[in-house]
């Protein structure tokens, strides 16, 4: 027996009396006392532990030491845990939590959370267990209590494991392991965590990895933590069963059994024996199986472990079946079935509970996620608004510049048109100049010849010859005259009416090319030889141009008909459009340059007629060239 | 170097048409009182060497192959303001005529005149006259007429110029380009012209300008 236990037992009575006598308890004494209580609990002396604890509690309440109260509550809870009275345990743990909160003892708070979490775990209430474990974790992180943190992580890992969420389980166990390995003080925890990871790895079908971890677990467990070693080796054996290596498995089971016996844990012994019995059955070692099975059965009944009872019955049923001991087999089968059914409903309940926990976990995760998304969306919108703003500004400027660009393009086109006009004009003039030069040269030569001919004529005495010479001279003069005419003609060809008409037609066609107006221009088939003065030419053309411009700017017409006519030497231009017309009487007709046109025609002694209504406008100007024609 | 031992009227000819040049030289030299001392057939040579000669009369053709006779007249007059220049050209258009005259031509003949006319013109010029073909004389009268009209109005020279261009049918923009002034300036001038001539529109102004009062 533990020496300390002996001491505790002995001390217990004296201590009780002592505490009854002296109301104030020093903290260090208090600590010793709590250690004694714990020891009593561990060794099953629950009632004695409870007694002492209650005394301590009374003291701590009277002396108003809340920290002490918290500790005592925890201990009391623990006694109940050991007696599997989970409901009572829970109550005390919650009281401890309250006390810790009162004095703002975050460490105590964390500890209480951990305790409560493990109770719920034992009660298979994974939802609550997770909840409290997370609370423990939060505080542990805050106050940087590594011990509390790692226990919380382990607890959460176990819960996830039970939920079959192996990935998460692994995550948490590994976190816990990391912290534990930092200090390497708590070898038991390290070992157990290795085992948990190993089990998870096996469930994830990573057997080699599982073996590695379980080996580590065993290493860390020995030599002091036999419990952990027993645990690890048993699971190691399971892995080998999974791999079909029954020999290795048996080896490890026997090791596990050894440790179990060393720690005198009937429960562990029972568990291991069950596993071994199963191996015996697969090995057809029925005799051993039956022996072991019966042993386990008795132990299970004693320890009130229903599950193992079922297992034991199952084993025996199988074994007897093999032995062809059918009566016995049937008996055990019946037992097994009966208990199984009652357990089945329990299992269903557990399944439902599991599902509920899963749903709760999922729900919380989803809430967190949606909040996250909400935040993200908020951020997105906030960042998008300025983008939209900039976009609209850009669009605005684009439209602004678009109109400017349009105008620019338009004016560019105008300039182009003007440049083209200019070019045509220059080419035309250049041609004329060349032509004139050529004829000029020709003329010079002929007049040169004239001089000579005249000289000869003067010198000729013979009248006949002189006559002939004179004729020759005349011919030359005629040629000169013709050449001069050509030059003059070239210079003044523009002043032919025919050319004015052609020029106007060309001009009109080019102008309306740029607008959505259909135009048709009619000119005479034959042109009489009529010359018009520079003035006439100018005024006709400018008036014509003005009317066309008016049509474009004001009329909103889409059809224009222009007719040039020379009838009985009367030259006329008629311009008809299908626009909206205008009031010929109103003063605003000034703005259409009509007054200008009128005065022009007046100045060249021509005539102008304007008719206009809402269907269109007809402008006619004409001049009589009868006296000027050839 | 005395090129003129008999004291004839000396002439230097600038003419690029070889046929004409040959024949005019022949004609001039056939007289007793006129002689041709040098013939140039292009402005390049003329500019290079004309200073070596001092004829009584320069016989200048306008349409030369590499330049204008009018410019040569300008050069001659610069070198010797008292030199006499007789233009003999085939073309008779206004611009050529007036340019020649404004550069200093002292007489203007059209090619094709009779030999008699040609020779008499030279003598006339030598004796201080101003020989002209009749067509040319008519042109000058017309110009003079409008010049009088311009002088009798109180427009500034610039305004007169603009009015002249207007009469030719130029638009304000074209006038602006021609005189290298802005469109607005042209408009302002025109406003002044209207005011001074007491007219209200372009047509009236032009009529006044061309036909006087």
Structural summary, described in words:
The complex is a heterodimer of chains A (630) and B (213). Chain A is rod-shaped and about 185 Å long. Chain A has 21 helices and five strands. Among the domains of chain A are: 399-493; 496-628, Heat Shock Protein 90 (2-Layer Sandwich). Chain A has helices at 3-21, 27-42, 46-62, 66-82, 86-102, 106-122, 126-143, 146-162, 166-183, 187-203, 207-221, 226-242, 246-262, 266-282, 286-303, 306-322, 326-459, 463-492, 497-512, 534-555, 594-603; strands at 518-522, 559-567, 570-577, 607-613, 616-624. In chain A, helix 20 (534-555) links the parallel strand 1 (518-522) and strand 2 (559-567). Chain A has 630 residues and is of the alpha+beta class. A five-stranded mixed beta sheet of chain A has the order 1-2-3-5-4, covered by helices on one side. The longest helix of chain B is centred in the C-terminal third of the chain and has 19 residues, at 134-152. Chain B is elongated. Chain B has 213 residues and is α/β, with parallel strands linked by helices. Chain B has two domains: 9-139, Rossmann fold (3-Layer(aba) Sandwich); 153-211, Arc Repressor Mutant, subunit A (Orthogonal Bundle). The A-B interface holds A 436-437, 440-441, 443-445, 447-452, 454-455, 458, 477, 480-481, 484, 487, 491, 534-535, 538, 542, 596, 599-600, 602-603 and B 15, 17, 19-24, 26-27, 30, 61, 63, 90-93, 111-112, 114-115, 118, 168-169, 201, 203, 206-207.
């Amino acid at each position: 027996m533990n020496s300390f236990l002996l001491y505790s037992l002995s001390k217990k009575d004296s201590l009780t009396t002592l505490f009854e006598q002296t109301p104030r308890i020093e903290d260090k004494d208090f600590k010793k006392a709590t250690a004694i209580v714990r020891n009593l609990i561990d060794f099953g002396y629950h009632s004695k532990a409870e007694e002492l604890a209650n005394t301590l509690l009374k003291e701590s309440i009277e002396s108003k030491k809340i920290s002490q109260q918290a500790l005592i509550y925890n201990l009391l809870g623990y006694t109940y845990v050991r007696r599997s009275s989970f409901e009572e345990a829970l109550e005390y743990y919650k009281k401890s939590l309250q006390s810790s909160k009162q004095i703002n003892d975050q460490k105590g708070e964390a500890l209480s959370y951990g305790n409560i979490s493990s109770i719920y775990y034992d009660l298979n209430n994974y939802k609550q267990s997770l909840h409290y474990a997370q609370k423990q974790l939060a505080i542990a992180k805050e106050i940087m209590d590594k011990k509390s943190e790692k226990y919380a992580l382990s607890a959460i890992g176990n819960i996830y494991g039970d939920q079959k969420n192996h990935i998460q389980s692994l995550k948490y166990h590994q976190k816990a392991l990391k912290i534990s390995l930092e200090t390497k003080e708590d070898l038991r925890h390290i070992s157990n965590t290795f085992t948990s990871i190993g089990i998870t790895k096996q469930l994830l079908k990573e057997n080699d990895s599982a073996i590695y971890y379980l080996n580590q677990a065993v290493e860390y467990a020995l030599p002091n933590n036999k419990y952990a070693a027993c645990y690890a080796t048993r699971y190691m054996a399971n892995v080998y069963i999974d791999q079909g290596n029954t020999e290795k498995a048996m080896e490890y089971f026997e090791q596990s059994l050894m440790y179990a016996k060393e720690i005198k844990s009937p429960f562990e012994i029972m568990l291991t024996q069950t596993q071994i019995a199963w191996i015996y059955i697969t090995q057809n070692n029925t005799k051993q199986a039956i022996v072991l099975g019966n042993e386990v059965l008795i132990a299970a009944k004693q320890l009130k472990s229903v599950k193992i009872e079922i297992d034991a019955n199952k084993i025996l049923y199988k074994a007897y079946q093999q032995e062809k001991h059918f009566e016995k087999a049937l008996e055990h089968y019946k037992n097994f079935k009966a208990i199984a059914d009652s357990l089945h409903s329990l299992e269903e309940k557990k399944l439902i509970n599991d599902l509920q926990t899963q749903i709760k976990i999922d729900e919380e995760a989803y809430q967190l996620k949606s909040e996250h998304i909400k935040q993200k969306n908020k951020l997105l919108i906030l960042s998008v608004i300025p983008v939209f703003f900039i976009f609209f500004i850009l669009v605005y400027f684009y439209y602004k510049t678009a109109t400017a660009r349009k105008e620019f393009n338009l004016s560019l086109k105008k300039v182009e048109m003007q440049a083209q006009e200019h070019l045509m004009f220059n080419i035309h003039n250049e041609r004329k100049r060349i032509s004139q030069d050529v004829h000029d040269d020709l003329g010079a030569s002929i007049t040169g010849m004239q001089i000579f001919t005249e000289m000869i004529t003067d010198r000729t005495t013979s009248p006949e010859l002189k006559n002939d010479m004179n004729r020759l001279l005349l011919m030359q003069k005629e040629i000169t005259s013709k050449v001069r005419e050509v030059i003059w003609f070239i210079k003044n060809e523009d002043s032919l009416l025919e050319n004015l008409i052609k020029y106007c037609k060309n001009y009109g066609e080019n102008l309306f090319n740029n607008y959505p107006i259909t135009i048709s221009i009619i000119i005479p088939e034959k042109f009489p030889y009529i010359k018009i003065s520079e003035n006439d030419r100018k005024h006709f053309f400018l008036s014509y141009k003005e009317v066309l411009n008016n049509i474009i700017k004001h009329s909103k017409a889409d059809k224009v008909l222009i007719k040039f006519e020379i009838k009985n030497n009367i030259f006329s231009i008629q311009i008809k459009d299908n626009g909206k017309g205008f009031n010929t009487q109103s003063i605003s007709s000034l703005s259409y340059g009509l007054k200008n046109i009128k005065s022009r025609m007046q100045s060249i002694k021509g005539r102008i007629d304007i008719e206009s209504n809402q269907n269109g406008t007809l402008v006619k100007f004409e001049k009589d060239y009868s006296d000027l024609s050839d | 170097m005395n090129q003129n031992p008999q004291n004839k009227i000396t002439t230097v000819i600038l003419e690029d048409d070889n046929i004409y040049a040959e024949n005019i030289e022949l004609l001039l030299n056939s007289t007793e009182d006129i002689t041709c001392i040098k013939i140039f057939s292009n402005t390049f040579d003329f500019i290079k060497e004309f200073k070596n000669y001092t004829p009584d009369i320069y016989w200048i053709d306008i349409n030369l192959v590499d330049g204008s006779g009018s410019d040569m007249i300008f050069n001659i007059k610069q070198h010797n303001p008292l030199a006499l220049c007789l233009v003999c050209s085939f073309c008779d258009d206004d611009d050529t005529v007036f340019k020649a005259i404004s550069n200093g031509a002292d007489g203007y003949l059209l090619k094709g005149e009779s030999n008699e006319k040609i020779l008499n013109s030279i003598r006339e010029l030598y004796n201080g006259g101003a020989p002209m073909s009749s067509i040319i004389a008519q042109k000058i009268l017309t110009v003079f007429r409008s010049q009088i009209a311009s002088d009798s109005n109180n427009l500034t020279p610039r305004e007169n110029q603009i009015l002249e261009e207007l009469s030719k049918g130029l638009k304000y923009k074209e006038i602006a380009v021609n005189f290298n002034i802005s469109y607005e300036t042209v408009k302002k001038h025109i406003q002044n012209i209207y005011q001074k001539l007491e007219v209200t529109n372009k047509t009236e102004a032009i009529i006044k300008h061309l036909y006087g009062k």
